[in-house]
Amino acid sequence: MLSRSNLLKVSRINPAQIARAFSSPAAVQNISSSKVSTSYKVPSDIKEFGGYWRKGSSSIIQESDLDYATSLRALHARLGLKDKIELNSLARTLICQSANSKYTDNLAMASFGKNLLNFYVYEYFLVKYPRLTPEVLQSVADLYLSTESLYKLASDTWGVEEDTRSALERYLSSESQGGFDERSLFGKLIYSSNSIKRQNGVIELLSGEDIYAGRKGAHATFVRALIGGIYAHSGIDATKEFIHNYIIKPKKLDLKDMLIFDQPTRELSRLCVREGLEAPVSRLLVESGRFSSHPVFVVGVFSGEQKLGEGQGASLIESKTRAAVNALKAWYLYSPLDSTLPSDSNSQSSNFEGVYIDKGSVVV
Questions:
Q1: DSSP 8-state class, residue 214
Q2: Residue 51's Cα: distance from chain center in Å?
Q3: Chain-centre distance of CA 318, in angstroms?
Q4: Residue ranges of the RNase III domain (predicted)?
């Protein structure tokens, strides 16, 4: 225990003395000879971010390990990755952390790639449809970013192969003489289905649904890791091009079916008031078979002389409601013709104009 006199001595130490002590040559030599330096390397210039280095226990995939990886080369060509990512990095994107492989897994690449994918998907739809409500925008983004969507993309669209060996086969192969050569799996998605869960000394067998969820997560992790790998090798422009060409544009969405209105006529009236337009008025345009068993009415909703929407139905009330719904859909699905994404290369020029920002959804 420190005495009162020793405590006073400690409290009187000048912080500058501490800084000089740690910056002295002797202190630097002591730090460099410590165990920390065997795992971490810090450059002399702390702002030289590319000079930081950490020693890991995992092995790095070499080009010579990929001589017979035909599945990997096929995937590399199928996704047009010749000039975007090297083969050994692509092989790493297919190794999940759950596989406990001796090679470096894709966790770090997937963590970074997830942020890039989220950014470009949200940017695209925020600029293309600036009037979408937050709820619809989130639903649209989930169709591209969710684990289920990325799983279908990797498995069904890209045709990613996976290691289908059972847990018993993996165990027997690891116990075989000479061990199992993991290089034979390069080009396939390597992961563990986590068929058991240990908690407080109790082993619980997972259900088929939980095992299937692990499979989906592995495919989604691969897609995110691939995005991170393309960025590391080819930069931000190539990453954006790949996301747009292989993830965003191939999926066709009908956003009209995603817009649901509880009180369309009232919401349309509030919208006209907010925008300074004349109050909406419904007018019967065409009718057929009013006194028959299958009448058809076509109603248009107008603001002054401008028709906002049109709808048809078996009754006047139904037609009026559908006309208001179609008018609201036309409003919320507005898309600028000459919109420019903020991430476009020419957006840094002096002629760049900010994107259109709407006032927000109508509160009923």
A1: H
A2: 29
A3: 40
A4: 72-235
CATH number at residue 107: 1.10.1520.10
Residues 272 and 223 in one domain: no
Burial of 162 (0-12, 13-18, 19+ CB in 10 A): middle
Q: For residue range 42-51, list pLDDT tens digits in order.
A: 778 877 766 6
Short-list 112, 110, 134, CA closest to 122: 134
Domain that includes residue 278, residue range: 264-333
What kind and span of H or E run contains 336?
A: none
Global pTM reads 0.74
Amino acid identity, residue 140? Answer: V
Tell me the two tokens of residue 45: 């210039």
Residues 83-137: tens digit of each pLDDT: 899 999 999 999 988 887 888 889 889 999 999 999 999 999 999 999 998 889 9
Q: Note the pLDDT tens digit of each residue in 199-208.
A: 666 656 555 5
Closest CA to 219 of 162, 166, 164: 162
Sheet of strand 306-313, all strands in order from the earlier edge strand to the far edge = 281-288, 296-303, 306-313
Instruction: Report the SS3 class of residue 286.
Output: strand
Q: Looking at residue 61, what DSSP letter applies? A: P
Give the angle 165-170-176 at the CA atoms, nearest 5°. 130
Structural domain tally of the chain?
2
